[in-house]
Specification:
Blueprint: H1 2-22, H2 25-39, H3 54-66, E1 76-77, E2 82-84, E3 87-89, E4 94-95, H4 99-102, H5 149-166
Antiparallel strand pairs: 1-4, 2-3
Cofactor: heme
Organism: Nymphaea colorata
InterPro entries: Cyt_P450, Cyt_P450_CS, Cyt_P450_E_grp-I, Cyt_P450_sf, Plant_Cytochrome_P450_Monoox
């Protein structure tokens, strides 16, 4: 169902974010330093804090870039022949957008296979995840975009922030 799909994809995104951070401890430290600076250590992270946490937001974007919740978007069906960017698409063709490939395009992303959240505070600062930036489409775009996009983003940011702020994280063996 749509509800179970929404909970699975958000929890998967959180797991990927934690895995990426545990494998990149310098990025984890940057996120925790940002949390300590903006939130302190005397209280829990609140939803109102998220807008001040630009590096945490960059981590979420980079996680969604590397591991989109749906690597293939909902298919579209051409009802008539059309030419898109020099490709002739016959009527009756099912079209899939391979988001995983779009997110790893070396013409758009330097070192596309690497976890580099800093790109979203420098070279790709203006890139959004709401479907308006076609180089980053983890939730699709337009009227067929994910209906739970805003809820998912709020949940992912708040839970990740609270996990990073409330606990010391290390990879096994460290």
């Amino acid at each position: 169902t749509m509800v179970s799909g929404g909970t699975t994809t958000t929890s998967d995104t959180l797991e990927w974010a934690l895995s990426l951070l545990l494998n990149n401890p310098h990025e984890l430290k940057k996120a925790q330093d940002e949390l300590d600076f903006h939130v302190g250590t005397e209280r829990q992270v609140e939803e109102s804090d998220i807008s001040k946490l630009s590096y945490l937001q960059a981590i979420v974007k980079e996680t969604l870039r590397l591991y989109p919740p749906a690597p293939l978007l909902v298919p579209h069906h051409s009802t008539e022949p059309v030419n898109i960017a020099g490709y002739n698409i016959p009527a009756g063709t099912d079209l899939y957008v391979n988001v995983w490939k779009v997110h790893r395009d070396p013409r758009v992303w330097a070192d596309p296979e690497e976890f580099k959240p800093g790109r979203f505070v420098t070279t790709h600062k203006e890139v959004k995840v709401d479907g308006q930036s076609f180089e980053l489409l983890p939730f699709g775009s337009g009227r067929r975009s994910c209906p739970g996009l805003l809820m998912a983003l709020q949940f992912i940011h708040l839970v990740l922030a609270r996990l990073l702020h409330g606990f010391e994280w290390r990879a096994p063996g460290n």
